[in-house]
Amino acid sequence: AQKVTQAQTEISVVEKEDVTLDCVYETRDTTYYLFWYKQPPSGELVFLIRRNSFDEQNEISGRYSWNFQKSTSSFNFTITASQVVDSAVYFCALSEVRISNFGNEKLTFGTGTRLTIIP
Amino acid sequence: DARVTQTPRHKVTEMGQEVTMRCQPILGHNTVFWYRQTMMQGLELLAYFRNRAPLDDSGMPKDRFSAEMPDATLATLKIQPSEPRDSAVYFCASGTAGDGNGEQFFGPGTRLTVL
């Protein structure tokens, strides 16, 4: 069975500080996808990133960066120079990969981390 | 800008009533998911379809919930009879299997309140 753990329930930081959201996962699959989604106060789920299990390169997109470490089963998310607009609930998620279909199976979500950026 | 649409956006109903939620996936997507979000359980999968055929509905209470795809442009989730514990936000998502992408595009959700 797959499991995603986001141990940080809530985090508050002052604007412009850096913040890292932790994600630890469990799976028996050797091939899988990892995701991060953002849920702002409006309620929609916004896709941020997808990572294949065989690609451990870290990724940077503007102020966002992701650190994938297979050895520790972690996929952490860092926001640099945080802004008030970053305030949201962030979800880490995991899905299996079926080679026959190569993508798009059900997501197993973590419980989310509520991030508040204080002006 | 292609989006997943869901109707209604909000629904308040009384216990015992039938509730039907609808989802229009992005045109061309062959995989449709139904997720439910509650404070207690978080985000959990109810069911999903590929090419309109159900792949997994193990997360769905079978006695009262049913999910269907009458055609490729419409997915429905029905609760009959509804109960207060069904109060939640129900999200539909769609994506494409086989493109190696794996991204799921979520709709805005249907907020259901059962009194």
Question: How would you describe what is shown here?
Answer:
- The complex is a heterodimer of chains A (119) and B (115).
- Helix content of chain A is 0%, strand content 51%.
- Chain A has 119 residues and is an all-beta fold.
- In chain A, the strands form 3 sheets. In chain A, strands 2, 5, 6, 10, 11 and 12 form a 6-stranded mixed beta sheet that branches. In chain A, strands 3-9-8-7 form a 4-stranded antiparallel beta sheet, with no helix packed on it.
- Chain A is globular, with a radius of gyration of 14 Å.
- The model of chain A has no long low-confidence stretch (mean pLDDT 91).
- Chain B is mostly beta strands.
- The mean pLDDT of chain B is 93.
- Chain B is globular.
- The N and C termini of chain B lie far apart (36 Å).
- Helices cover 0% and strands 54% of the residues of chain B.
- Chain B is built from no helices and 11 strands.
- The interface between A and B is medium-sized, with 24 and 28 residues.
Task: List descriptors.
heterodimer; A: mainly beta; 12 strands; globular; B: 115 residues; mainly beta; seven-stranded mixed β-sheet; four-stranded antiparallel β-sheet; 11 strands
Question: Quick recap of the structure?
Answer:
The complex is a heterodimer of chains A (119) and B (115). Chain A is mainly β and 119 residues long.
